[in-house]
Amino acid sequence: MTEQYSDAKRSTTGSKHQPKLPSGLTPSTEVDAVGQDLNWGTNIYPSSMTLEDQHTKWWLAWSKMMTDPKWRVGFIPIPYFAVAFLLMILASYYDALPPSMVTGFAITGLLGGILMWIGNRIPKVRDYGLPTLLCTFVPAILYFAGVIPENIQVAVSTFVTDQGFLDFFVSAIIVGALLGMPRTLLIKAGPRFFVPLIVTIVGVFAIMGAISAAAGEGFFEGMLFFAAPIMAGGIGLGAVPMAEMYAAQLGTDPSVFMGNLVAVTALANAVCVVFAGLLRGATKNGKQWFVGFNGNGELMRIKGHAGEFEQPRKKAHTNFVALFQGLMMASLVLMIGGLLSSAIGGLHMYAWTIIVAAALKIFKLLPNELESAATQWGDFVNKTLVSALLVGVSLTFIDLNEVLDAVTSAHFLLMTIGAVAFAGIIAGVSGWLVKFHFVEAAVIPGLIMADSGGSGDVAVLSAADRMHLMPFAAMATRLGGTVTLFLATLLVPFLMA
């Protein structure tokens, strides 16, 4: 080893590009490749290699590419990612894609990785949520065009719904964010949160009804066919039960309303993601258009207590035990939420999960170790699986046929875009009045209530770069959706008038 080192040293003498060894690394030190990979994304990833590995230029260039983040797609070096992507195509061609979680993770991870990589390579536009938009809509477009085969769509759809990937993701984000949230923020922001939520729902209903009436389409039609499905927070809580209610009231089949209601929800979700990306770009440099305009991710603005509402500093690295603890905490809290939903009812499983996690945090029922572990698990899932979830949602829930049938109407487009815009503005203003930052309130509950539910929440928060506010997003989606559905129930009889 000494002789090799001497040769390497002589060969590089006088070169200004002579490699330097890291502090504490001797010529005989070996760098653990597994350790490098596990530490990727932290501040302890080795930046240099041993001189043994630099004996040829081609090896140096290859090694540099393998460790450079610019040459990675979905956290995988490009050459290996390309091979994996080719294998997925071959498996699809030979119909060797069993509907399992392993297959689902592979497909969504590969598709999400390449779409995120493409979106992040385009300057300027990427700051306005382009990677999120690509993951949300490109898979649905490719499936609609026949580029993505049926067996891939079936495997992904089974993965997201039947195998519970959506629950897996949302539970990690909700529980991790709530248990990692400052306790004071949770206590003081919660009651205030209902003010912009209720004001936004009532305001959007009234305005869209008035606009529809002025256009000659009917006051209650504007509220029930645009405001209601958009503000209900998703297809499951909005379009589906509303189609049933409308059909029962008018004595027809739910399919008469389903396509239009789903199209409204899908288009509104797309508009929400675009608006969220615009807000992200407008606030990227911390610009303040007026006092309390941009919180840079902080929900509330209360003078004199800023330290109480700051998010805790994230750890530079974690360990396997903490990740397992976090997984168990997210799973158990979701299980309790499902139990309460079945035993008591009244609220969706996610809403009960929020209540349970909030109670654990407010009453300090967990040790700091488990709270920290749940937060780290949520951060891990958020960092690595957002693109996979968006691809899964795109292939599972977005039907371009229904969307295209509806968006050919100018009235449909203007009403849908208007409802989303008014939701953001009303929520921003009413939230600002109760000491929220305008931008954060415009996103939550404004845009969040107008998107397509749990998956839409992920897309909007990702585009707005405010994913840590997921607990309030889930609260707006579920509780706001319940209020909207109740209001729609009261208004349905007026369709007969």
TrEMBL record:
Q: Which GO terms describe its molecular function?
A: organic anion transmembrane transporter activity
UniProt keywords (A-Z) are:
Membrane, Transmembrane, Transmembrane helix
The segment annotated Disordered runs over 1-29
Domain of life, per UniProt, equals: Bacteria
So where does this one cross the membrane?
Answer: 73-94, 100-118, 130-148, 168-186, 193-216, 255-279, 320-340, 347-364, 384-400, 412-434, 475-496
Q: Does the keyword Membrane apply?
A: yes
Basic and acidic residues bias located where?
1-10
Whether Chaperone counts among this entry's keywords is: no
* InterPro entries (UniProt xref): 2-OHcarboxylate_transport
Q: Name one GO cellular component term.
A: membrane
Classification via Pfam families: 2HCT
Protein name per Swiss-Prot or TrEMBL: 2-hydroxycarboxylate transporter family protein
Annotated source species: Enteractinococcus helveticum
Upper taxonomic lineage: Bacteria, Bacillati, Actinomycetota, Actinomycetes, Micrococcales
